[in-house]
Amino acid sequence: MRVDLSLLVHIVYICTQFYQVHSLNILGVFPYQGKSHFFVFKPYLEELARRGHNVTVISCFPREKSMKNYHDISLADKVQVLEDVFPIKRSYYTIFQISVFLLSTGTSNCESLLADENVRNLVKSKAKFDLVLMELFNSDCGLGLAYKLGAPVVGLSSHQLMPWHYNRFGVPYNPSFVPFLLLEGGTKPTLYQRVERTIFDAYFNTAYKYFGQRVDQNTLAQYFDDIPPLEELARNMKFLLLYTNFLLTGSNLLPSNVIEVGGYHVAKPKPLPSELRKFIEESEHGVIYISFGSVLKATTTPIDKIEAITAALSELPQRVIWKWEGETLPGNPKNVFLSKWLPQNDILAHPKVLAFYSHCGLLGTTEAIYHGVPMVAMPIFGDQPSNAAAVEESGLGVQIQLNELSKAKLLEKLRTVLDPKFNQRVKKLSEAWHDRPISAMDSAVYWAEFAAQHHNFTFRTAAADVPLYQYLCLDILSVLIVLFLIFIGILKTLLKCIFTSKSSLQRSNKSKKQ
Ligand SMILES: *[C@@H]1O[C@H](CO)[C@@H](O)[C@H](O)[C@H]1NC(C)=O
Ligand SMILES: *[C@@H]1O[C@H](CO)[C@@H](O)[C@H](O)[C@H]1NC(C)=O
User: Ligand 1: which residue has its CA nearest to atom 1?
Assistant: First the structure.
């Protein structure tokens, strides 16, 4: 009888634990059209729906099959989805082009978002949401929407922080050791790179403020007349769930409400298509997998670079799987499997895949560390230079820059990562990646639920609120300098007094003696 009672108490206890987090009404705001971005968020939004939350998602990627608790508001017909559109090139000019691209898509997506009938109905019908999840990338427009709906906001990113996200969360941006998303140099930049990233940081922040945020603010004002400044709303965000992990991107200075949840998009590997599986399993010396992602166009790679790659590969005994949009490669190399589309995660999960030659997007890089596949990282645009630096610094792989790509150089890099000792170290890194107190997905879900339930508190660091002169301690320094000057002044006067009285004493002594 006693045993039964304690069992009953136990069951009641478990039930109350279950009921602690009730089903939340969640709105997701993802107007950006980059496939690689939404591919990170999709598994997370699905998981929230699976766990019983009512999830409404505004995005360009509506589901094909319906899912319980998951509702789409599609912007797909208003926005052009990005895929295979960027050429493989890199220069200061392409960085400038990226800034223009970021700001123009951000502001036009804000217009499409607010003009959407279904989105406007949400505001008109005063829909009640417990939480708004929104992508933090090239627009803060969704913050205005969340304000109108009166819901707390949790930001999501599919990459490291954008230059304009540091201030609002109080994350220190110090060019001496914080990588700049779009530039090389990692955490140990040269003086040249430190100056370079300081200039670009100032440029990106200024451009964002005047050609991004201000434009969005005006767009919002066309629909609503009471939206506070977007930067102020940005500071009131509860959390930022950052798609990084310190094992890959290094130990960073992050406040308590910026939480690393890198890794949750990686799915359990599925069986490979039979042709591909045969190609991998029949390889005697393993396979090198090459992909430059879903946005870059491999067929626009300069022809001499392609020839350098194929020449390097022909020196190696490994077979090659290459994501390539064309029918054939120049020179028709043997032992290469070409395809427009490949199940990347399932390929990387295969133990015979020994190296991954990549443009170093954060998704592919995350899948590589997850499965322990060494990388040769050739960054092209966006956050890839900083990801590639992280790959090298973490020991996941080595970098090769596009402008130094030659047969000999690539061969050297591939041989480095194909070395069994290198592979073993990467396997150890991958083991550490999986060793966590709570999975990335559980952590991301937990903090979203936490934000909804404890939304009356603010978790922002005081560092985000102090004026710049206090942040840099300029006032303290000024006071200390003034005190020091006063001290010197007093000392000088004192010494002067002592000397003059001493000399006058001596003089009077002298005159007494005479
Ligand atoms: C769930 O979301 C849908 C779509 O936004 C909405 O129509 C429905 O009323 C919501 N259900 C609950 C129980 O809040
Ligand atoms: C949050 O604050 C508002 C206004 O101050 C108050 O009405 C509400 O009850 C509070 N909610 C919780 C959960 O404490």
Answer: 54
